[in-house]
């Protein structure tokens, strides 16, 4: 099942199911083009994993980490399918990063890897938009990773049974494929990530873990359209704008 949050033609916010371009809620069914697709969850935080694809580590010439590299994005970073994200002005290097997002189903702490999937609601697509100019000169990456709209996500949350263990992950910019990989390149699995993260912090229902990006990260330009397609989830699409400095 793929769950979707949306605003119906009357302006009411609903949670329904998404199937073959249609959105259903109760006895009502809409074409997806008739409604506004909202971000699939309202997290209190987004826990991000750096360098979790073997192909990306090789691309960057970096050693495989011995434990997950973690950082945070706050709720203001959330943006939705179909949105236009205004990126920071005056930067030389603003980049895309296709990521599988794990949506947490309930409050949890100190979760063993063997039980980790019990706290997973499902998976979504996320773009970990990054401002490399500032990321490279600060340790906490607030300017680099936490600006408004820096985590487009959606369009749905697909239950784990919908998403294969070797699901493909692809990113296109203006229709041209830039990233193409699969979950098989993960260094740390979803259960391993949940165990590590919940050792240190409590996750709340609706929080999102984004699981790293594959090889092929690159620069964005004003007016670009980004599509992230993950097998079993669907396709997140958003545009970007870059104002004059």
Structure description:
With 245 residues, this protein is mainly beta. It is built from four helices and 19 strands. The chain folds into two domains: 1-37, SH3 type barrels (Roll); 39-241, Fumarylacetoacetate hydrolase, domain 2. The protein has helices at residues 54-60, 132-135, 142-145, 190-200; strands at 2-7, 13-19, 22-25, 28-31, 36-37, 46-50, 69-73, 78-80, 84-86, 94-95, 98-104, 120-127, 130-131, 151-158, 168-173, 176-182, 208-210, 225-230, 234-241. The longest helix is centred in the C-terminal third of the chain and has 11 residues, at 190-200. It is globular, with a radius of gyration of 17 Å. The termini are far apart. The mean pLDDT is 96.
- Give the amount of beta strand, in percent: 35-45%
- Main sheet? 12 strands, mixed
Helical stretch tally: 4
The amount of helix comes to 10-25%
Q: Note the run of SSEs as H and E.
A: EEEEEEHEEEEEEEHHEEEHEEE
CATH topology of the largest domain: Fumarylacetoacetate hydrolase, domain 2
Average pLDDT across residues? 96
CATH architecture of the largest domain: Alpha-Beta Complex
N- to C-terminal separation?
44 Å
The value of Rg in angstroms is: 17 Å
| Domains (count) | 2
CATH class of the largest domain: Alpha Beta
Outline: globular
What structural class results from the helix and strand content?
A: mainly beta
CATH homologous superfamily name of the largest domain? Fumarylacetoacetase-like, C-terminal domain
Low-confidence stretches: none
